[in-house]
Design a protein that fits this description.
Length: 139
Protein backbone atom coordinates (compact mmCIF):
# COMPACT_ATOMS: atom_id res chain seq x y z
CA UNK A 1 0.00 0.00 0.00
CA UNK A 2 1.19 3.51 -0.75
CA UNK A 3 1.25 6.43 1.66
CA UNK A 4 -1.50 8.98 1.03
CA UNK A 5 -0.76 12.66 0.46
CA UNK A 6 -2.85 15.74 -0.20
CA UNK A 7 -4.00 15.62 -3.81
CA UNK A 8 -4.30 11.83 -3.91
CA UNK A 9 -7.15 10.76 -6.18
CA UNK A 10 -9.01 7.62 -5.26
CA UNK A 11 -10.18 5.22 -7.95
CA UNK A 12 -13.65 6.12 -9.20
CA UNK A 13 -16.44 3.99 -7.79
CA UNK A 14 -19.00 3.06 -10.44
CA UNK A 15 -22.32 1.95 -9.02
CA UNK A 16 -25.25 0.10 -10.49
CA UNK A 17 -28.19 1.85 -12.01
CA UNK A 18 -30.67 3.29 -9.53
CA UNK A 19 -33.85 1.95 -11.10
CA UNK A 20 -37.52 2.48 -10.31
CA UNK A 21 -37.57 -0.53 -7.96
CA UNK A 22 -34.69 0.87 -5.87
CA UNK A 23 -36.35 4.31 -5.74
CA UNK A 24 -39.72 2.78 -4.75
CA UNK A 25 -38.04 0.72 -2.01
CA UNK A 26 -36.29 3.83 -0.70
CA UNK A 27 -39.55 5.81 -0.79
CA UNK A 28 -41.25 3.10 1.26
CA UNK A 29 -38.42 2.85 3.80
CA UNK A 30 -37.91 6.60 4.18
CA UNK A 31 -41.53 7.69 4.02
CA UNK A 32 -40.63 10.17 1.25
CA UNK A 33 -43.29 9.39 -1.33
CA UNK A 34 -43.01 12.68 -3.21
CA UNK A 35 -44.49 11.88 -6.64
CA UNK A 36 -41.53 13.46 -8.52
CA UNK A 37 -39.61 10.33 -7.53
CA UNK A 38 -42.29 7.80 -8.39
CA UNK A 39 -44.60 9.14 -11.10
CA UNK A 40 -43.50 10.29 -14.56
CA UNK A 41 -46.51 12.58 -15.07
CA UNK A 42 -45.98 14.28 -11.70
CA UNK A 43 -42.28 14.74 -12.44
CA UNK A 44 -43.05 16.30 -15.84
CA UNK A 45 -45.68 18.56 -14.23
CA UNK A 46 -42.92 19.78 -11.89
CA UNK A 47 -40.72 20.67 -14.88
CA UNK A 48 -38.53 17.57 -14.80
CA UNK A 49 -37.99 15.27 -17.78
CA UNK A 50 -39.05 12.26 -15.68
CA UNK A 51 -38.82 10.82 -12.17
CA UNK A 52 -35.67 11.64 -10.19
CA UNK A 53 -33.80 9.68 -7.54
CA UNK A 54 -34.07 10.87 -3.94
CA UNK A 55 -31.05 12.99 -3.01
CA UNK A 56 -30.57 11.09 0.25
CA UNK A 57 -30.51 7.78 -1.64
CA UNK A 58 -27.72 9.14 -3.84
CA UNK A 59 -25.91 10.66 -0.85
CA UNK A 60 -26.08 7.37 1.02
CA UNK A 61 -24.00 5.73 -1.69
CA UNK A 62 -21.03 7.93 -0.73
CA UNK A 63 -20.34 6.01 2.48
CA UNK A 64 -19.67 2.74 0.66
CA UNK A 65 -17.18 4.40 -1.67
CA UNK A 66 -15.40 6.10 1.24
CA UNK A 67 -15.21 2.83 3.21
CA UNK A 68 -13.80 1.09 0.15
CA UNK A 69 -11.11 3.76 -0.25
CA UNK A 70 -10.27 4.07 3.46
CA UNK A 71 -11.57 0.96 5.23
CA UNK A 72 -10.09 1.79 8.65
CA UNK A 73 -11.27 5.40 8.77
CA UNK A 74 -14.19 6.68 10.84
CA UNK A 75 -16.61 9.00 9.05
CA UNK A 76 -17.12 12.10 11.24
CA UNK A 77 -19.02 14.35 8.83
CA UNK A 78 -20.50 14.41 5.35
CA UNK A 79 -21.94 17.33 3.42
CA UNK A 80 -23.16 17.58 -0.16
CA UNK A 81 -24.64 20.03 -2.61
CA UNK A 82 -26.68 18.78 -5.55
CA UNK A 83 -26.18 20.68 -8.79
CA UNK A 84 -28.48 18.54 -10.97
CA UNK A 85 -31.04 15.82 -10.31
CA UNK A 86 -30.31 12.17 -11.11
CA UNK A 87 -32.85 10.53 -13.39
CA UNK A 88 -34.35 7.25 -12.26
CA UNK A 89 -32.65 4.54 -14.32
CA UNK A 90 -29.25 6.23 -14.36
CA UNK A 91 -26.04 5.04 -12.73
CA UNK A 92 -23.55 7.05 -10.72
CA UNK A 93 -19.78 7.42 -10.58
CA UNK A 94 -18.24 8.62 -7.32
CA UNK A 95 -14.87 10.35 -7.31
CA UNK A 96 -12.75 11.45 -4.39
CA UNK A 97 -9.60 13.45 -3.72
CA UNK A 98 -7.71 13.92 -0.46
CA UNK A 99 -7.88 17.67 0.22
CA UNK A 100 -6.43 18.01 3.71
CA UNK A 101 -4.52 16.02 6.33
CA UNK A 102 -4.31 17.22 9.92
CA UNK A 103 -2.67 15.41 12.85
CA UNK A 104 -4.94 15.07 15.88
CA UNK A 105 -3.88 15.56 19.47
CA UNK A 106 -3.48 12.19 21.10
CA UNK A 107 -2.80 10.41 17.80
CA UNK A 108 -4.68 9.72 14.64
CA UNK A 109 -5.23 11.95 11.67
CA UNK A 110 -8.15 13.96 10.35
CA UNK A 111 -8.69 13.61 6.62
CA UNK A 112 -10.87 15.81 4.43
CA UNK A 113 -12.02 14.37 1.11
CA UNK A 114 -13.56 16.35 -1.74
CA UNK A 115 -16.21 14.21 -3.39
CA UNK A 116 -17.96 14.24 -6.74
CA UNK A 117 -20.89 12.28 -8.08
CA UNK A 118 -21.54 12.14 -11.82
CA UNK A 119 -24.35 10.43 -13.66
CA UNK A 120 -23.77 7.65 -16.19
CA UNK A 121 -23.09 10.19 -18.94
CA UNK A 122 -20.40 11.89 -16.85
CA UNK A 123 -22.43 15.00 -15.97
CA UNK A 124 -21.71 16.26 -12.47
CA UNK A 125 -24.80 15.99 -10.24
CA UNK A 126 -23.34 16.45 -6.76
CA UNK A 127 -20.25 17.74 -4.96
CA UNK A 128 -19.40 17.10 -1.36
CA UNK A 129 -16.95 16.85 1.45
CA UNK A 130 -16.26 14.10 3.95
CA UNK A 131 -14.34 14.48 7.21
CA UNK A 132 -12.75 11.29 8.52
CA UNK A 133 -10.52 10.19 11.33
CA UNK A 134 -7.85 7.67 10.47
CA UNK A 135 -5.07 5.95 12.38
CA UNK A 136 -3.00 5.05 9.30
CA UNK A 137 -2.38 7.00 6.11
CA UNK A 138 -2.19 4.23 3.54
CA UNK A 139 -4.55 3.47 0.70
Amino acid sequence: MSTLAVGHRFDDTKLAILDAAAVAAYAQASGDRNPIHLDAAAARAAGLPGPIVHGMLVMGRLEGAIRNWLPGARLKGLSTRFVKPLAVGDGIVIGGRLARIRPLEGGGTELVLRLTIANGAGTMICIGEAVLESVALTG
